[in-house]
């Protein structure tokens, strides 16, 4: 298995591929490294919960690692630096995968096998020319990834879903559930997409953005819809950022992605004990002016509709849908009916058209670019087209 080793300088926190530190006279036992790693993770869990290692993060990790090594009475003083670098390499190094993780243009990463690796770069799925060794090496890599979030992955727990401190999401599946170890990495964009950059990329034009801003200013209940990777979360973040600062906003998510850069905001994250449904109920007790739900995907749709209809006007949410218009509202109705006992479909759809004020639909083009396709006002008698993408046609290959 190819590994990234640390440089020999005692105070250097950078690494270089293939630069191997001098071998100590005493053997470096994996049991000792494992024991130190457990102590380090218990002492400072956030120090290890990163997918990409900046210089600042590495300095923090090095400092904690040195503390742990120095506390071991069996380590001679002259060997503290060497063992510290070995421990940091064990935790932070991801071998040849590092070259993809350090590339800010890589959005998502899909490892279907040791030599079957794809990534999303610039919005397009491309094959990565990497060799991660054999299946045992891939298993070790998966275990190291989820360990950063304190999650266990083994034959007794062959599926793991983890979230790192930097917002990255990791999903791993082992045999026998999968034929070979499989890893999915969904990276949180460190550089947030703003309206100006979105316009430059053709997501919408100046008039389209002004219409979207006005929907927020008018406190209309918004539903942002689109397929996977269409840019729903990015647009919801932009819309949330233009909510007036004197309004109290409660954000509810399964995974923390929005990270609104604004004052007077409370961010809630669902877990095993409290799901989205329970969090919406709790949010109503916080006297919010608006509620923003990262993605509606279940029975919480009914609770969100109730909140929108009973005082939290100007609330927003995203929903997964392959097509826009009535298809989105029909999907929302089906989700809400999971909780709304005694409602018929037509009755629920009627309540939705009275509660949802505007519908924004995004699409992801074959070239990987994303755009707002339509903005529609929702009325009980039908949908009113407010804005449609009329920009230049884009090639499909």
Task: Walk me through the structure.
By secondary structure, the chain is an alpha/beta fold. The chain is built from twelve helices and 16 strands. The strands form three sheets. An eight-stranded mixed sheet has the order 11-10-12-13-9-14-15-16, sandwiched between helices. A six-stranded antiparallel sheet has the order 5-4-3-8-7-6, covered by helices on one side. The protein has a two-stranded antiparallel ribbon with strand order 1-2. Strand 15 (370-379) and strand 16 form a beta hairpin. The two termini are 37 Å apart. Mean pLDDT is 84; it is low at 1-28.
- N-end to C-end Cα span: 37 Å
Overall pLDDT confidence: 84
Order of helices and strands: EEHHHHEEEHEEEHHEHEEHEHEHHEEE
State the major sheet: 8 strands, mixed
CATH T-level topology of the largest domain: Rossmann fold
In terms of DSSP E residues, the strand content is 15-25%
- Strands side by side in the biggest sheet: 11-10-12-13-9-14-15-16
CATH superfamily of the largest domain: P-loop containing nucleotide triphosphate hydrolases
Number of DSSP E strands: 16
CATH architecture of the largest domain: 3-Layer(aba) Sandwich
Poorly predicted runs are 1-28
Rg (C-alpha, Å): 24 Å
> What is the CATH top level name of the largest domain?
Alpha Beta
How many domains in all?
3
Alpha plus pi helix count: 12
Shape: elongated
Based on helices, strands and strand pairing, what is the structural class? Answer: alpha/beta
Helix percent band: 25-40%
Compact description:
With 397 residues, the protein is of the alpha/beta class.
């Amino acid at each position: 298995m190819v590994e990234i080793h640390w440089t020999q300088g005692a105070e250097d926190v950078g690494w270089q591929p293939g630069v191997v530190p001098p071998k100590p006279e005493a053997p470096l036992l994996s049991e000792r490294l494992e024991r130190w790693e457990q102590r380090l993770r218990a002492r400072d869990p956030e120090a290890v919960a990163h997918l990409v290692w900046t210089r600042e993060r590495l300095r923090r990790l090095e400092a904690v690692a040195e503390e742990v090594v120095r506390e071991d009475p069996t380590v001679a003083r002259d060997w503290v630096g060497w063992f510290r670098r070995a421990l940091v390499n064990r935790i932070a190094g991801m071998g040849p995968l590092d070259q993809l993780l350090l590339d800010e243009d890589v959005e998502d990463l899909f490892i279907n096998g040791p030599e079957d690796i794809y990534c999303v770069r610039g919005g397009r799925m491309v094959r990565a020319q990497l060799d991660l060794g054999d299946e045992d090496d891939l298993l070790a890599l998966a275990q190291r990834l989820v360990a950063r979030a304190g999650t266990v992955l083994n034959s007794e727990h062959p599926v793991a879903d983890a979230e790192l401190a930097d917002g990255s999401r990791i999903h791993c599946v082992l045999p026998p559930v999968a034929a070979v170890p499989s890893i999915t990495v969904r990276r949180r964009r460190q550089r947030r997409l703003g309206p100006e950059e979105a316009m430059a990329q053709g997501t919408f034009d100046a008039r389209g953005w002004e219409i979207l801003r006005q929907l927020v200013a008018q406190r209309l209940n918004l539903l942002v819809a689109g397929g996977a990777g269409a840019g729903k979360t990015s647009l919801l973040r932009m819309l949330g950022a233009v909510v007036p600062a004197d309004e109290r906003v409660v954000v509810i998510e399964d995974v923390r992605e929005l990270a609104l850069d604004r004052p007077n905001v409370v961010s809630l994250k669902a877990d095993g004990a409290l799901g989205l449904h329970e969090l919406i109920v709790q949010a109503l007790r916080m006297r919010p002016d608006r509620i923003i739900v990262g993605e509606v995907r279940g029975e919480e749709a009914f609770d969100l509709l109730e909140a929108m209809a009973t005082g939290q006007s100007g609330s927003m949410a995203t929903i997964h849908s392959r097509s826009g218009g009535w298809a989105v509202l029909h999907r929302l109705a089906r989700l809400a009916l999971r909780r709304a006992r005694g409602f018929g479909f037509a009755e629920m759809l009627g309540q939705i058209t009275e509660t949802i004020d505007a519908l924004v639909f995004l699409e992801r083009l074959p070239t990987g670019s994303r755009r707002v396709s339509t903005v529609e006002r929702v009325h009980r008698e039908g949908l009113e087209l407010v804005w449609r993408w009329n920009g230049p046609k884009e090639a499909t290959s």
